[in-house]
């Protein structure tokens, strides 16, 4: 993989605007996702809860409680937040009332749900070695594909511009493309398979028409290989442990305030970053702060256990 020289280009530096301890102790921030209109961001935590904040002011709106095991993925659709968990459920939450409004339970036989994706009328989920599909309008299961993968299915994604096509990825190193039209089964609806050769952690789409697929493996390799330019931004000084999630704000939402975005990590902190000019000393609007409403103190003998999602 080629890396361009950064000798003639200086990275923009961003300063810490806000720093929020979501909890004191051994709690992690797993994922940060925005609403479509950026009116809120959702943050999944290792406490099996999801919290909601303002992406501009960092105001705390509330939290969603119900999962009894690790929350593996969260995603918005309109005023609903969806989440899946190792407790075997996919839940939908009203972001105005913070109440659960729907739940699909796949926990039979000890199932875990590692990923989910919504199509036009289908909901797909990676459930251990299976890809399960439901009609999300009725919550009725319509298919269970159990012959294509031999290990945990870490990711499922409907292709953005072709909602009848579903891509799955697994610890077995395979990426499968399914056609979800008609009576879905492994024999007739598996279109193609890519063998990456090592465990796949995440996948996504590239290009104007989403014709390209990227994957991130569990040995931290990124495919496809290509040219990577020099760093355009450097964020430093906010975290004291591994950074798990980075969310960059589009210019139309954060640009006027000089905001770069948010990061979350294994130190349990949410950090908001602004351009160095806006975070200069003496600007009281940009000093770091913490909200006492978010603080939960653990017992003194609490031990830190590093979480491995798969």
Query: Hey, roughly how much beta strand do the residues contain?
Result: over 45%
Strand order of the largest sheet: 23-2-26-25-24
How many angstroms separate the termini? Answer: 27 Å
| SSE succession | EEEEEEEEEEEEEEEEEHEEEEEEEHEE
* SS summary, helix count: 2
CATH class of one domain, anyone?
A: Mainly Beta
CATH overall fold name of one domain: Methylamine Dehydrogenase, Chain H
Average pLDDT level: 81
Overall spatial form: globular
CATH architecture of one domain: 7 Propeller
Number of strands: 26
| Rg | 20 Å
According to CATH, the homologous superfamily of one domain is YVTN repeat-like/Quinoprotein amine dehydrogenase
Please tell me about this protein's structure:
Keywords: Repeat, WD repeat. Residues about 1-10 and about 280-305 have low confidence and may be disordered. The chain has 2 helices and 26 strands. Helix content is about 5%, strand content about 50%. The longest helix has 4 residues, at about 185-190.
What are the defining features of this structure?
310 residues; mainly beta; 5-stranded mixed β-sheet; 4-stranded antiparallel β-sheet; 2 helices; 26 strands; 3% helix; disordered N terminus; WD repeat; WD40_rpt
């Amino acid at each position: 993989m080629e890396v361009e020289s950064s000798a003639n280009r200086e990275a923009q530096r961003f300063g810490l605007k806000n720093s929020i301890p979501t909890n004191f102790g051994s709690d992690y921030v797993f994922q940060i996702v925005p609403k479509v209109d950026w009116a809120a961001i959702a943050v999944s935590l290792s406490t099996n809860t999801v919290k909601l904040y303002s992406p501009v002011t960092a105001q705390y709106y509330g939290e969603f409680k119900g999962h009894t095991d690790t929350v593996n993925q969260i995603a918005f659709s309109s005023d609903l937040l969806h989440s899946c968990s190792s407790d075997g459920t996919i839940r939908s939450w009203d972001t105005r009332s913070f109440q659960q409004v729907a739940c699909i339970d796949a926990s039979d036989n000890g199932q875990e749900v590692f990923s989910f994706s919504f199509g036009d009328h289908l909901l797909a989920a990676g459930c251990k070695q299976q890809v399960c599909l439901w009609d999300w309008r009725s919550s009725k299961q319509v298919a269970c594909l159990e012959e294509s993968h031999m290990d945990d299915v870490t990711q499922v994604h409907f292709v953005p511009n072709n909602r009848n096509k579903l891509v799955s990825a697994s610890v077995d190193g395979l990426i499968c493309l399914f056609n979800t039209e008609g009576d879905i089964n492994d024999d007739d609806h598996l279109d193609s398979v890519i063998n990456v050769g090592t465990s796949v952690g995440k996948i996504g789409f590239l290009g104007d028409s989403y014709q390209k697929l990227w994957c991130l493996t569990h040995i931290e390799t990124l495919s496809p290989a290509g040219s990577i330019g020099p760093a355009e931004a450097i964020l430093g000084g906010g975290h004291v442990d591994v950074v798990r999630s980075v969310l960059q704000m589009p210019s139309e939402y954060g640009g006027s305030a000089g905001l770069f975005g948010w990061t979350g990590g294994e130190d349990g902190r949410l950090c908001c970053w602004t351009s160095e000019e806006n975070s200069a000393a003496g600007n009281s609007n940009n000093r770091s702060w913490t909200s006492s409403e978010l603080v939960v103190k653990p017992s003194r003998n609490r031990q830190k256990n590093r979480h491995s999602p798969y």
